[in-house]
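Hi support team,

I submitted a single chain yesterday and got back a structure, but I'm not sure I'm reading the token output correctly. Could someone confirm the output below corresponds to the sequence I sent? I've pasted both exactly as they appear in my results page.

Thanks,
R.
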Amino acid sequence: MVKQRWADLTARQRTGIAVGSTVQLALIAAVLIDLSRRPADQIRGTKRLWVGLAFVNYIGPVAYFTCGRRCAGTDRATNGPHGG
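Hi R., thanks for writing in. Yes, this is the structure output for that exact sequence:
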């Protein structure tokens, strides 16, 4: 496979790379902002773990938003449908 320089790419390829990069950076920023504002007891795992995983392309941020956060007020031991 021959290495291509930015100038060798088509306009469509450049646009795709730019859009993909922008989405990735936005996801990382969203995770880091959310982690800085969210209390540690509302996160599954440690903040340090999720900061590291945030930099794994697409998978890390998506995993954080789908699995890493606990919803506020959903502690089943105290706030569940039958809890106190």
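A quick pointer for reading it: The radius of gyration is 19 Å. Let us know if anything else looks off.

Best,
Support desk
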